[in-house]
Amino acid sequence: MRCTATTELMGLSFDAVTMDAAVARCLDLCRAPRSSHTVITANASHLCMMRRDPELARACKEGHLTLADGMSVVWALRASGQRIPERVTGVDLMARLLAVAGKHRLRVYFLGARREVVTALVEATRAQYPGIDIAGFRDGYFAPDVHLSIVEEIRTTRPDMLFVGMPSPFKETWCERHRQRLDVPIIIGVAAVSTCWPGFIRRAPRTLQSLGLEWFWRLLMEPRKLWKRYLTNNSEFIWLACREIVARRWGRPPVTQGQ
């Protein structure tokens, strides 16, 4: 159940919260009677993929805390007359949650990326956040027939936070599909966080982040991997977001998913 004000764009409700409020909400869920909750950090790409992927759309809509991870989403929400205090990125939220985990002796589990990357992430986390309790970790390369055994492995370590660093839409649908069985208070998909955190891929300078150009920085870092995705998704998002902005400004019902 959501306990904060919400905004909506392209069929997905976003919690209108600051980074501090998001961290506090996650900490509250860790302290509450144990049950599983998913945190969705959605950007323009998620909103576009949701139109063609019903399972992804369902997973995102079932999120207990949904955050605007993309300045294009923030700008579109504001342009449509809705209030959203700031962008809350998965990578920054992860850093804040790890700091909280270290302070409050919470257990964390990392799932995803290549073995050497997630190992470096664990080592960097232990060095930067003394006192943090790492329940376990493993890479994100596994076959479908071991999904349930991985879920059981995570469940038995009883982490308070599970960070899943794998591509979308797999990470969102996997987390929602196994949410109840995992029994982890905070389950959050963090996409490329586990590759940029230890220094494998540098994040954009703060100036570019504030201008909403972090996507362009990533494109420069990995052009062959990202150019087609960004070209198609960004164009689709601009068209759909503009239609919704105009509809909301004119007091008309926004265009629904899939139209």
Would you write up a description of this structure?
The protein is of the alpha/beta class and 259 residues long. 51% of the residues lie in helices and 15% in strands. The protein contains 13 helices and eight strands. The strands form two sheets. The protein has a six-stranded parallel β-sheet, with helices on both faces. Strands 1-2 form a two-stranded antiparallel sheet. Strand 1 (6-9) and strand 2 form a beta hairpin. Helix 2 (44-50) packs across helix 3 (54-61) and helix 2 (44-50) packs across helix 13 (223-249). The mean pLDDT is 87.
Kindly state the mean pLDDT as a whole number? 87
Reading side by side through the largest sheet, how are the strands ordered?
4-3-8-7-5-6
Q: Classify the helix fraction into a percent range.
A: 40-55%
Q: Number of DSSP helices? A: 13
Percent in strands: 5-15%
> What is the terminal separation in angstroms?
28 Å
Listing every helix as H and every strand as E from the N terminus to the C terminus, the arrangement reads EEHEHHEHHEHEHEHHEHHHH
Structural class: alpha/beta
Radius of gyration: 18 Å
| Beta strands, count | 8
Q: What is the quaternary state of this protein? A: single chain
Can you tell me the overall shape?
Answer: globular
The major sheet is characterized as: 6 strands, parallel
Which parts are unreliable, with pLDDT below 50 for 5 consecutive residues or more? none
Quick recap:
With 259 residues, this protein is α/β, with parallel strands linked by helices. It has helices at 19-31, 44-50, 54-61, 71-79, 90-104, 115-128, 147-157, 170-177, 179-182, 193-196, 206-210, 214-221, 223-249; strands at residues 6-9, 12-15, 38-42, 65-68, 107-112, 133-138, 161-165, 186-189.
